Amino acid sequence: MARSDTVTAPPGTTPGTTGQQFAGPLSAAVAELCVALQRQVSPRTAAGFGEVLRRLSAPLQVAVAGRIKSGKSTLVNALIGRRVAPTDVGECTRLVTRFQYGTVDRIEIVFTDGRKQVLPFDPGGMIPASLGVDVDRVSHLEAYLTNAVLRDLTVIDTPGLGSLDAASVARTEELLGVRGDELDPVSRSAVAGAEAVLYVVTQGVRADDQQALAAFTAATASREAGPVNAIAVLNKADTIAPESVEGSGGDVWRAAQLLAEKQAHGLRPRVADVIPVMGLLAESAETGGFTSADADSLRALAQLDRATRDTILLSADLFASWECDVPAGTRVRLLEKLDLYGIGCALAAIDAEPEITAGALRRRLLDSSGLDLVRGKLGAVFGSRADGIKAAAALASVTALAHASGDPGERQRVHNAIEVLLAKPEAHQLRLLEALTLVASGAVAMPQDLVDEVLRVGSSPEIAEQLGLPGRPPQELAAHALERAGWWRSFASFGATPAQSRVAHVVHRAYFLVWQQLRGSGGGRRR
Ligand SMILES: Nc1nc2c(ncn2[C@@H]2O[C@H](COP(=O)(O)OP(=O)(O)O)[C@@H](O)[C@H]2O)c(=O)[nH]1
Ligand SMILES: [Mg+2]
After folding, report:
1. Checking DSSP bridges between strand 97-101 and strand 138-145, what pairing results, if any?
2. Quick count: other Cβ atoms within 10 Å of Cβ 435?
3. Where do the DSSP E strands lie in 161-253?
4. Helices (H), 406-469
5. In the chain, where the domains are located
6. Each residue of 408-421: b (16+ CB within 10 Å) or e?
7. Is the pTM above the cut of 0.90?
8. 269 upstream amide cis, omega within 30 of 0
């Protein structure tokens, strides 16, 4: 594994007492709890805890989920910065593939009986579209790659729910933990699930997408996806017809933004917001798919007379088939890499700057794709919260393993140990994540304005955003935090159900800690 064999701690990690590196103090605390509990439970449960420990020191596990053909594999390639996952057709698009960091590039087929077999890359450096083995006996693929992004993130590409192929759906669900109760509890269900989800939707998001999202017990088999650990993208933004979106003013990005906001509304509170992206453009620009030969072809297209150019840009069919000086094969290749919108962007860039280099053109396409925003969001949300997400997922796994043991004494010991951990002041962030998940999933009902407030406090890494007062001066933030702390304390005592009251205490404390922090930074004192 990447982390366990590093000698010096990567930045932003916390060393544990056992010599492993963790995403932060919460993960380290849960790891200590696992080590201590291993001596007090049956060998079977202890083996499960060992698995939890192993995962705690690994990078955050993010599943890329969504309907088939929504562009998941394309986006995975763009994020990793390498065209390695097959897209469109082939056996592998029906399998779950885990992309993780390794010191040498290597692919392994993992069979359902646990056996592994090395799989050579295809001549293009991709996972071969056909495996040459009986796919029905394959559990999933493990791809170890040297790409730096994977040091912090293990990316799990999924075939997608909603595909017609029942077997692929079953495999995806198993890996994400949805059907956890049917699996062997020690080795799989409690620990195999993803910890976070990047959910890919396209223009026509449907009700069953939302059901699928709700069903993702993302963090582990027993935890749901919520705004803490789920991000959604509206992919294929380039294919949106702006005239079909009111208020877009004919602009594709504006149209995508409006649609994304609408979808965010429908998906809330499962995800905090939906970011538009053009995965194909991002993939081509980021993985070397877009070459200087492509830039030359685009320059040739830019030379065409205006009438021809306008005609072929009307539709992909016309673009590929219309008679003109640029060979049809060349045009089809451009379509495959950039689609019509990307080609239009490139031509506009060449018009504005005829001497533009292939490198600069590639950068323009990357900027147009919106990938940087997705990366930024991944960093802000998953990066800053990896510790809490991993720790919460591990605690859920520990609880699930204790339950699966069937021994009431064991269950009680585990329960007590978790209570002790959660009672410590350092564990506040974990309690806040738990409260947030309870409120987001509707398990604890609250008036909508309070739900929104809890979500804001719990799911933003920035204090001013947590308080809903971006850009305001520290004194104002401090006063607001104190006021809300007081309000939530009285809500906890008066007029709340017991479940609401527990959440309210946690929110009160969150505001109190924010206030302390603001006071500390303003007056030169730190807490
Ligand atoms: N126009 C356009 N096509 C895309 C985009 N992303 C993916 N595609 C295409 O959609 C098809 C399905 O993509 P794939 O990544 O295999 O989808 P998956 O089944 O969700 O993994 C492929 O032909 C991609 O080239 C995009 O942002 N825009
Ligand atoms: Mg795919």
Report:
1. parallel
2. 22
3. 196-201, 230-234
4. 408-423, 428-440, 448-459, 463-466
5. 55-278, 282-369, 428-527
6. eebbeebeebbeeb
7. no
8. yes
Query: Within 13 Å and on the Cβ side, how many CA atoms surround 70?
Result: 29
88 within ligand 1 shell (Cβ under 6 A): yes
* pLDDT value at residue 82: 95
Q: Per the structure block, which two tokens stand in for 114?
A: 């646990």
Give phi and psi for 367, each to the nearest 5: -60, -40
The Cα–Cα gap between 181 and 52 comes to 18
User: Given this model, what pLDDT does residue 162 score?
Assistant: 47
**Residue 239 in contact with ligand 1 by CB distance below 6 A:** yes
pLDDT averaged per 10 residues in sequence order, the chain, 527 residues: 38 61 90 94 88 89 84 95 88 80 95 90 91 88 94 85 52 50 36 75 70 45 61 94 93 95 80 90 96 97 94 95 93 97 97 96 97 90 82 86 87 93 86 82 84 84 88 95 96 89 94 91 46
Determine the distance separating the centroid of ligand 1 and the alpha carbon of 251, expressed in angstroms. Answer: 22
The pair of three-digit structure tokens given for residue 241, joined into one six-digit string: 């017809």
Topology given in CATH for the domain delimited by 55-278: Rossmann fold (3.40.50)
| Phi, psi dihedrals of residue 305, rounded to the nearest 5° | -65, 150
Instruction: Name, in order, each residue with C-beta under 8 angstroms of 315's C-beta and a sequence gap of 6 or more.
Output: 340
Angle value at C-alpha 23, between 17 and 28, nearest 5 degrees: 30
Joined tokens for residue 502? 């527990």
Residues present in the chain in total: 527
Tell me if 439 CB under 6 Å of ligand 1: no
Backbone angles phi, psi at 179, to 5 degrees: -100, 35
Dihedrals φ, ψ of 250, to 5°?
A: 80, 5
The three state secondary structure string of 239-303 is: HCCHHHCCCCCCCHHHHHHHHHHHHHHHHCCCCCCEEECCHHHHHHHHCCCCCHHHHHHHHHHHH
The Å distance, Cα 79 to ligand 2 centre, comes to 14
